[in-house]
Design a protein that fits this description.
By secondary structure, the protein is mainly beta. It folds into two domains: 54 residues, no CATH class; 147 residues, Sandwich (Immunoglobulin-like). It has one helix and 15 strands, in the order H-E-E-E-E-E-E-E-E-E-E-E-E-E-E-E. The strands form four sheets. A five-stranded antiparallel sheet has the order 4-5-13-9-11, with no helix packed on it. Strand 2 and strand 3 form a beta hairpin. The protein is rod-shaped and about 110 Å long. The relative contact order is 0.20.
């Protein structure tokens, strides 16, 4: 009988120790995960052999940058209208290709330096629709889309529909878009200059200088 009591006592003590160990050492911090100069988190062991341990670092932040890109290629630096006519319009043109990653697109505008075709010898004579020199002629700027859109961006749209008489140095929008587009050698739009004189327009050589400005929003 004494032996039986001793066995029971040993079994009870063993069960108590097991319960205490299980509740006290259910998880143990055995180390840490360090992100240099940033943070540290614990590595936890389940305190069993065999067993497992786990640790999770704080978030590691990834950063990068895409730099702005914009190119504009103008097909020529000279538009030669040749001999002007009082019976029909004479037209010359150039093509422009835009490439950009501007997410809000671009606006291309053009400006005439003199507001007309100006006589080289006497700048009081201009070919335009004004009558300051006593004669009304015509000097027009025009633009139109030249090809299928070369942007693969969803929702891309472009406009080139300028058609106006030029008689000042005011800026005129010739092309605009709303999203990014590729520079792939396919011209986006054509810019045209047209002029028609009057039979009384003084003879001589005439000229103008135009400049294009492209603005964008990245």
């Amino acid at each position: 009988m004494n032996t039986f009591k001793k066995i029971c006592a040993v079994l009870a003590l063993t069960a108590m120790l097991a319960n205490n160990i299980g509740s006290t050492y259910a998880a143990t911090d055995i180390g840490d995960i360090n992100i240099t100069g940033w943070s540290s988190t614990d590595v936890i062991w389940d305190d069993a052999l065999p067993g497992y341990s786990t640790g999770t670092s704080a978030n590691v932040t990834i950063s990068a940058r895409v730099v702005p890109i914009l190119t504009m290629t103008v097909s020529t630096g000279v538009i030669d209208l040749g001999d002007l006519s009082y019976t029909a319009y004479v037209t010359g043109s150039l093509d422009i290709e835009i490439g950009t990653n501007a997410r809000n697109g671009v606006i291309v505008s053009v400006v005439s330096a003199s507001g007309g075709l100006t006589n080289d010898d006497d700048n009081s004579f201009q070919v335009n629709n004004l009558v300051a020199d006593g004669i009304a002629e015509s000097y027009k700027f025009n633009s139109e889309i030249n090809a299928v859109a070369d942007s693969s961006v969803a929702g891309f749209a472009s406009t080139a529909n300028l058609d106006t008489e030029i008689s000042s140095t005011a800026s005129n929008v010739v092309y605009s878009t709303n999203k990014e587009e590729a520079d792939n050698g396919v011209d986006d739009f054509t810019f045209k200059i047209s002029s028609k004189i009057d039979a009384q327009t003084p003879s001589g050589t005439y000229g103008d200088t135009i400049s294009f400005t492209v603005t964008w929003s990245f």
